[in-house]
Design a protein that fits this description.
Number of domains: 2
CATH class of the largest domain: Alpha Beta
CATH architecture of the largest domain: 3-Layer(aba) Sandwich
CATH superfamily of the largest domain: Phosphoglycerate kinase, N-terminal domain
Bound molecules: adenosine monophosphate
Length: 397
């Protein structure tokens, strides 16, 4: 693979796999353009060098071929606004004749956006012929779509083999994602604290198991903490619980003990009498929640307990909220953790926040620029930290 920043794109046609899977409202207006903005530095560097750019992406989950609802044509106008002064062309079929003719005539400094890759079933199937056809559109392949790096699709992984090693590379976004993730897993900085939250233990077992090999401390919050509490004999009322994961929870605790990893569970909780933004609230020890009540956030003592651990850390990974932060009455814990991570970062720790909900939380609470790195890839990030090799990364390497 080549290093993107060292490559001179002058005279090259770069085919970039971007993740433009942005949310659209029913008027086809983009409601969050984060993913598009994230690709701009990569595009700009190529244009500035004197190259041209062909962008390919998926949008949504079209089932039966071309559908207006999932057309990337809805993104043309905004893409033009993000690249002022740049000619942005569109091909209404990613491998159609028009796409090849337009790509062939593309001049340095111009951008061509291709129609939704997933209008072809071959994309998700990782079809070789489809990938080969796509590769005919540009002479350099750049993967800048970390969000789909865990999928072995035609445009994210299979296509790479049709380029010589020096003509395939990560874009700037992907480079940043990969180097931040590698720093967390391999730099060896200690103490290394992983903060894992969210709803379900079952979604996070593999990541916890892999982190047991590396972390010094693992903080467990959110709904999943109550499965651990119950497994340890606690009373959890109506809190979220995966009855079929009680043994798993105990096994994870035993493994941690054997490996000398400190697991921190929330000592207390903010409890509610129903799952509702306006529920009545109270406080209780997390292992003694009254019948009819449920834990929807970590409590005041737990915030202090977790903050102390985070403040001592040199390396921090955070995936998953500490409570139902979508409801204002239950966001205190997630906000306190965001603040503690920001403070540790200010003191020199390296912190990576990833996973849809924790990213939404740091954005919402204004801490996004106070942590070291905010990952754009939910599923991809989780799989990376589960220790899996991501096809999109492996194919480039
Ligand atoms: P995940 O997608 O597994 O990271 O879970 C995120 C979701 O977990 C968010 O929508 C939170 O509202 C939810 N969550 C966090 N803590 C709790 C809790 N104590 N009870 C129920 N849901 C929770």
């Amino acid at each position: 693979m080549s290093k993107f920043s060292d490559f001179n794109f002058k005279g090259h046609k770069a085919l970039i796999r971007v993740d433009f899977n942005v949310p659209l409202n029913d008027k086809f207006e983009i409601t969050d353009d984060t993913r598009m903005r994230a690709a701009v530095p990569t595009i700009q560097k190529i244009l500035k060098d004197g190259g041209s750019v062909i962008l390919m992406s998926h949008l949504g989950r079209p089932k039966d071929g071309p559908t207006d609802k999932y057309s990337l044509k809805h993104l043309i106008k905004h893409l033009g606004e993000l690249l002022p002064g740049t000619t942005v062309l569109f091909a209404n079929d990613c491998i159609g004749e028009q796409a090849f003719l337009t790509a062939g005539m593309l001049k340095p400094g111009e951008v061509l956006l291709l129609e939704n890759l997933r209008f072809y079933k071959e994309e998700e199937k990782g079809d070789e012929n489809f990938a080969k056809k796509l590769s005919g559109l540009g002479d350099v392949y750049v993967n800048d779509a970390f969000g789909t790096a865990h999928r072995a699709h035609a445009s994210t992984a299979v296509i790479a083999k049709f380029y010589p090693a020096d003509k395939r590379m990560f874009g700037l976004l992907m480079e940043g994602e990969v180097s931040s993730a590698e720093k967390v897993l391999h730099s060896g900085g200690k103490p290394f604290t992983a903060i894992i939250g969210g709803a379900k233990v079952s979604d996070k077992i593999l990541i916890i198991e892999n982190l047991l090999e590396r972390a010094t401390d693992i903080i467990i919050g959110g709904g999943m903490a109550y499965t651990f509490m119950k497994a340890q004999g606690g009373k959890i009322g109506n809190s979220l619980c995966e009855g079929d994961r009680l043994d798993t929870a105990n096994e994870l605790l035993e493994k941690a003990k054997a490996k000398g990893v400190n697991i921190h569970l929330p000592s207390d909780s903010v409890i509610a009498d129903k799952f509702d933004a306006n529920a009545n609230t109270s406080a209780a020890p997390s292992n003694n929640i009254p019948d009819g009540w449920m834990g929807l956030d970590i409590g005041e003592n737990a915030c202090g307990q977790f903050t102390n651990v985070i403040h001592k850390s040199k390396l921090i990974l955070w995936n998953g909220p500490m409570g139902v932060f979508e409801f204002p009455n239950f966001q205190h814990g997630t906000r306190a953790i965001a603040q503690a991570v920001a403070e540790a970062t200010k003191k020199g720790a390296f912190s990576l926040v990833g996973g849809g909900d924790s990213v939404a939380a740091v954005n919402q609470f204004g801490y996004a620029d106070k942590v070291s790195y905010v990952s754009t890839g939910g599923g991809a990030m989780l799989e990376y930290f589960e220790g899996k090799e991501l096809p999109g990364i492996a194919a480039i390497k």
